[in-house]
Amino acid sequence: MSNRFYRAALLAAFPIAFASAASAHxxxxxxxxxxxxxxxxxxxxxxxxxxxxxxRVTVTIPEGVIGAKPMPKPGWQLGTTKGSYAKAxxxxxxxxxxxxxxxxxxxxxxxxxxxxxxxxxxxxxxEFSPGATVYFPVExxxxxGADKGGIAWTQIPQAGQDPHDLKTPAPGVRIIAAxxxxxxxxxxxAPAPIKAGDLTIETPWLRATxxxxxxxxxxxxxxxAGAQPDRLIGASIPxxxxxxIHSMSTExxxxxxxxxxxxxxxxAGGNVALKPGGxxxxxxxxxxxxxxxxxVQGTLEFERAGKVPVSFTVAPIGAQGPAxxxxxxxxxxxxxxxHQH
Length: 341
Fold this sequence. Notes:
Elements: H1 3-13, E1 26-28, E2 32-33, E3 37-45, E4 54-60, E5 65-70, E6 77-91, E7 94-110, E8 116-124, E9 133-135, E10 138-142, E11 150-153, E12 172-175, E13 194-196, E14 199-207, E15 215-224, E16 230-236, E17 242-251, E18 254-259, E19 264-266, E20 271-274, E21 280-284, E22 295-302, E23 306-315, H2 328-338
Parallel strand pairs: 2-12, 14-23
Antiparallel strand pairs: 1-3, 3-8, 4-7, 4-10, 5-8, 6-7, 9-12, 10-11, 13-14, 14-15, 15-20, 15-21, 16-19, 16-22, 17-18, 17-21, 22-23
């Protein structure tokens, strides 16, 4: 019997071990996620149990959520339970068939009149479609032995049932389409920055291509306001067979370019800028040319934030920015180097 089914059997067999939920509450801070994308789960414990302090919190990772990793918490011991998935899921590193199925923080003390957060990261697979809800059962144990017990926030509503009718509902995350990712305000006619979790993506643009060109350069700025690093691992546009991340350098007066293996790190609290003459996106196997002034719908893919839809503006050949600028000497050299593969 797998660990997750064993835990479910225990909860069904011994419900009396958990006290009334009248004086406690457990919720997830982030209540929306997209399929095939990273999710930062923040479990908020709002109260203790009948006046007793919380000493243990366990989150069950549901089937269809993979690659779960907990965030350590000062003063608490961290433990994980691993088990087999019901089927193999596609990840960035190939198929995965097992992983973390439960995370436990224990040994601390959270007073009945205090609140705190317990954080984990995971990936929502495409097992879930927009409109579905993914539930993360939470068990909260408190000091005081059997008299205080704990609370199992594990009830999942049946089809058509109102979750508010449940005494101890499991925290849920609603699945939304990737295109619903929040856009933050912009000034003037500049494209609006795109907010994807902790990332802010600004000014994605491409250079127009001459007739018969098979490659095109792309550029973008990404900042990370979160506490965890992310990584840009891919990009795509409909006009190209594939997209890669490249670096450019000059050695002995000769420009050299090479793929960035393993993706490009976006540090926590930092940013990375892809621009002419340095790091950039390279779109290969073009089957349609890119014309200045048009807009191209594409995708950036991140290790944590997942696939993010973006709109690339197309600037003239050799432009140094998204505005219609001439290439200049350096721009012309960069353009030539980026189109020689």
